[in-house]
Every structure is written in structure tokens, then in C-alpha cells.
Specification:
This protein has 119 residues and is mainly α. 48% of the residues lie in helices and 3% in strands. It has a two-stranded parallel ribbon.
């Protein structure tokens, strides 16, 4: 009789333990609280105007100016100079001066200005 009672008690404790584990697994972790919203006026007051980067002209830039563009080293800078003049900046890609991946990285930092036509 004591063995049977002990077994029933062990089974009951095991069931209680398992059932509480199931409830604990079903509960979701509390969501992280959202960061406090800042007033729109404060954002405008503290926002700094972006400094406009100076574009590098492919047709007139020195080798040092070209090398200052991230991704352009000695070899590419010299190729750019040797391929002048450029009517459009995308000619760096079409003339195979630069690979497309490098051109895509630098296209916002360069420009190909045209000299005014002489009469």
C-alpha cells in the first residue's frame, strides 16, 4: 500500500511539474517598451544641415583629387586621366575604365563637366 501511494504521489508531482512547465512555455516574454517619442520640434532644432560634398570633375581633377575618392587608387586614377575627356560620368563604365561595382560606389561623388563651346 505504501509503494502504491508513493508511486501515485510521484506521478502527481511529475504531472504538476510538467503542467506548470507547459504554462511557462506558453507565456510570451513581455514586449520591450517603445522608446519615448521625441517632439518633432526638438528633432528639427537639433538636426544639422548636411554638408554638401564637393563633386570631383573627371575632366579636370588632378590625380590626387581622384585618389581622394574612396575606391580609387593610383591605377584607376591614371586610367581616368588617360581616358579624358568624358561627356558623361557613366562613360567610366561604358569605356571599361572602372568596373561597374566601383562605379556604382563612386557615382555620387563625381561629375563630368563640359567646357563651354567656343564660337
Amino acid at each position: 500500500m505504501k509503494k502504491t501511494l508513493s508511486r501515485v504521489l510521484v506521478v502527481a508531482v511529475a504531472l504538476i511539474f510538467v503542467s506548470t512547465m507547459g504554462f511557462a512555455a506558453d507565456t510570451k516574454a513581455p514586449a520591450k517598451p517603445a522608446p519615448p517619442a521625441k517632439p518633432a520640434v526638438e528633432k528639427q532644432a537639433t538636426a544639422k544641415p548636411e554638408a554638401k560634398k564637393e563633386l570631383v570633375d573627371l575632366n579636370t581633377a588632378t590625380i590626387d583629387q581622384l585618389k581622394s575618392i574612396p575606391g580609387i587608387g593610383d591605377t584607376y586614377a591614371q586610367k581616368i586621366i588617360d581616358g579624358r575627356p568624358y561627356a558623361k560620368k557613366d562613360q567610366l563604365k561604358s569605356k571599361k575604365i572602372l568596373p561597374a561595382a566601383i562605379y556604382d560606389k563612386i557615382k555620387d561623388a563625381i561629375i563630368a563637366k563640359q567646357e563651354p563651346k567656343k564660337k
